[in-house]
Recover the amino acids of this structure.
């Protein structure tokens, strides 16, 4: 489980080893008290700070694990935090899948097609074979290129801003 950004842990670990923080153990402890800053935003950090501190003091990035069918969380020392999550990961995924829309399905299909297309292109490059043009190839014209660019722009806008079909971004 990634409970906080890994780069945050790296910055805290690096900062805790700065000469100003290692001269006195209390200075290093105070520096690591920054882990408490998020405790007002989220309900869980107060429960994991002790494990995070222990890992950082040991020179490690904190690692937490869970099981798909469990609401519990385990620290890198094997300590179990019971009922850490409101629901299991399996139930969370099941709930998410049940609420997917037709638009979500189209988005996932687009991701799959794009991934498979990139694999095909890479495979052809690896074989050093020139890509064959389809028999229905139509030469590009300025108008066709502009139309395709506009279509791509609309699709990227939909993906980036979560717009629905028929809705257009203002501006």
């Amino acid at each position: 489980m990634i409970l906080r950004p890994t780069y945050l842990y790296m910055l805290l670990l690096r900062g805790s080893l700065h000469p100003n923080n290692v001269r006195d153990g209390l200075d290093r402890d105070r520096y690591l008290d920054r882990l408490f800053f998020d405790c007002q935003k989220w309900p869980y950090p107060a429960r994991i700070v002790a494990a995070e501190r222990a890992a950082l003091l040991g020179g490690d990035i904190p690692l937490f694990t869970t099981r798909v069918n469990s609401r519990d969380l385990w620290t890198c020392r094997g300590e179990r935090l019971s009922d850490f999550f409101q629901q299991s990961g399996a139930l969370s995924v099941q709930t998410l899948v049940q609420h997917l829309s037709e638009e979500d399905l189209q988005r996932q299909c687009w991701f799959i097609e794009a991934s498979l297309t990139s694999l095909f292109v890479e495979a052809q490059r690896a074989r050093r074979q020139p890509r064959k043009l389809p028999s229905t190839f139509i030469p590009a014209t300025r108008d066709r290129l502009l139309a395709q660019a506009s279509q791509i722009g609309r699709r990227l806008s939909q993906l980036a801003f979560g717009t629905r079909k028929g809705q257009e971004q203002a501006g």
